[in-house]
Amino acid sequence: MISCKDSNMKADKAQYSGKDVSGEAFIIRNKDDKSAIVRIQTADKWLLYSGTSIDNIDFSKPVAEGRGSGIFPLNVPDSVRSYFQFVTPEGKAILAERHLPMEGGYNFRDLGGIKTTDGKFVKWGKIFRSDDLHNLTDGDLRYLSSIPLVSIVDFRSPDEIKRSPDKFPSSVSKDYAYSITPGNLLAAKSLANLKEAQMDSAMMDMNRILVTDSACVNRYKDFFTLLQQEKEVPLMFHCSAGKDRTGMGAALILFALGVDENTIIEDYLSSNIYLDGKYAQYIAQNPNLKPLFEVKKEFIQAGIDEIKKEHGTVENYLTNVLGVDIQKFRERYLY
């Protein structure tokens, strides 16, 4: 006799279903050799299937299976990105690595897998955020081509772009220089001479500028126009550190998709984890400038609160200022 639980273990397509088990398994890639592991946090029996896209996951044989928690190596290709179907008796979830294993980069992330307030999930492999791309290795570029990335949006200033030009995966057909330069608007503050508390205040001001200054707003409007065109996706957007201009862009995307504010802020704060070490030497030499190279809740909160003060809700801002068709946006980017 086959138990009801065993019958629930059958899978033939990638999906989220049953109990939310998305927090019970995590795919992690090693930055240097791109080897993969799965970290399991469940007492149940589980199966894991894989493929190089959501649509071609091989359900004929799991790449890993077991019962209970642990860390398990995965025998999957290291030169291309893999996607996974996690199956337990209680529920199913689609998985991939949230943090992309770029040897020549730090803050590379997929927005996929984040849960919305109405129980849906952001699609994997569609929208990516990152820091600068000029140090990417040939292996990194091959990995990004396997997604395959189609478009890149660069929020850096013209000087930043000229100083450190992007390296592009071969799959990219178009890059967009949508320069956002709030630093220029804060130049009068002579940042190098500010104390840390004053620097925090300057970073809060910068986040307010990102969502109110017409030049910045127009760049985000252009960005959302791209995101609403199917031919431009999968898309990666970035600045230098991938935390401020990119962080606000990511927050606005997640608001548009119906993710709750606390989760959005947690995602924003994770830049501190992924950027660890990137600016350590510079911070050691200029400790008062540390806030320039980290994120704090009050930074992004200042921008969010400014939007709410002027527009009532972030959704109003997205619809009326940035031109986002929220219903269609969610249909496009949510499971």
From TrEMBL:
Domain Tyrosine specific protein phosphatases: 221-283
InterPro entries reported for this sequence: Prot-tyrosine_phosphatase-like (IPR029021), Tyr/Ser_Pase_IphP-type (IPR026893), Tyr_Pase_AS (IPR016130), Tyr_Pase_dom (IPR000387)
Domain of life of the organism encoding this protein: Bacteria
Gene Ontology MF: a single term: phosphoprotein phosphatase activity
Pfam families: Y_phosphatase3 (PF13350)
Gene3D superfamilies: Protein tyrosine phosphatase superfamily
Annotated family: Belongs to the protein-tyrosine phosphatase family.
Name of the protein in its database record: Protein-tyrosine phosphatase
Organism: Dysgonomonas alginatilytica
Lineage: Bacteria, Pseudomonadati, Bacteroidota, Bacteroidia, Bacteroidales
